[in-house]
Backbone:
């Protein structure tokens, strides 16, 4: 890695999150009245880039949005968080929209209409990842573009992190260019389980288990466990993204993986205690405060 390389580039989605708070998901054919709702910035990519910036790393976001008002909101969010936005505006597709049901107890269900996210090209992705220390991607944008970005970044000497969300078998084919794979238990199962991931060549797999904490799996080494911070969640939307963004930021700052995972858990816990997928409450200071409680 050259000395001039620094910070995090996130390749991924940017969505307008339309959130409704409900006690339970609606049944087929049912209209359910929610308690409250709102429009929030979202998208796994945008959330992760914002978290990386808010936890102290220079952060770049590479994505595609529409030529609409939602894109203006997302652009403002990135600017306010100090993220360098490499945003292409599509003339043919609207900004992605996520319909988020925020359920009691902090859980959620999300449906995404990809819109302009689906237009992120191989060229957009590869051009966007030059000269950074860490490249972070998810699977809400075209998978060929994600694969190309990770391949180019790794060839260039960057550390690569893939959050395989939503899960797709294509992630298996990317493992040779992924340094750290982040999956939750559902995604891990959808990809065939930990044994399959390791047999397929995964170098390091971070398995996030919500309140049960995080397990780091590396072939031939004992599982390393990081306990979760005990919290009362308000809205877990974006908590996993905060985890990934903070993890990438810490790795870009040269923090060893085991310690980076502790910071990442703290970031996820902070975001889960606020409404929406991003929050200005996430900062190096709020992470340090939570770490001090250990
Ligand atoms: O991970 C949470 C995010 O998933 C939401 O912000 C939504 O936009 C979807 O991308």
Residues:
């Amino acid at each position: 890695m050259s000395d001039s390389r620094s910070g995090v580039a996130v390749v991924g989605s940017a969505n307008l999150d339309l959130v409704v708070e409900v006690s339970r998901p609606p049944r087929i054919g049912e209209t359910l009245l929610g308690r409250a709702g709102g429009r929030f910035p979202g998208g796994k990519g945008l959330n992760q880039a914002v978290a990386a910036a808010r936890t102290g790393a220079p952060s770049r976001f590479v994505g595609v949005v529409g030529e609409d008002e939602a894109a203006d909101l997302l652009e403002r969010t990135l600017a306010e968080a100090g993220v360098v936005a490499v945003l292409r505006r599509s003339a043919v597709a609207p900004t992605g929209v996520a319909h988020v049901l925020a359920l009691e107890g902090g859980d959620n269900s999300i449906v995404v209409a990809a819109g302009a996210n689906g237009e992120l090209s191989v060229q957009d992705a590869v051009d966007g990842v030059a000269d950074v220390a860490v490249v972070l991607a998810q699977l809400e944008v075209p998978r060929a573009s994600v694969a190309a970005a990770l391949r180019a970044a790794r060839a260039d000497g960057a550390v690569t992190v893939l959050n395989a969300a939503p899960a797709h078998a294509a992630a298996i084919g990317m493992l040779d260019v992924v340094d750290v794979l982040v999956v939750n238990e559902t995604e891990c199962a959808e990809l065939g389980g930990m044994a399959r991931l390791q047999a397929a060549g995964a170098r390091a797999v971070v398995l996030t288990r919500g309140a049960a904490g995080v397990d780091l799996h590396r072939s031939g080494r004992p599982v390393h466990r990081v306990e979760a911070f005990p919290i009362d969640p308000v809205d877990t939307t974006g908590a996993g993204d905060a985890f990934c963004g903070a993890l990438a930021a810490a790795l870009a700052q040269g923090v060893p993986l085991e310690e980076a995972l502790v910071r990442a858990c703290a970031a996820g816990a902070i975001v889960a205690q606020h409404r929406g997928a991003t929050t200005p409450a996430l900062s190096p200071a709020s992470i340090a405060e939570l770490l001090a409680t250990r």
The radius of gyration is 18 Å. The chain is about 35% helix and 25% strand.
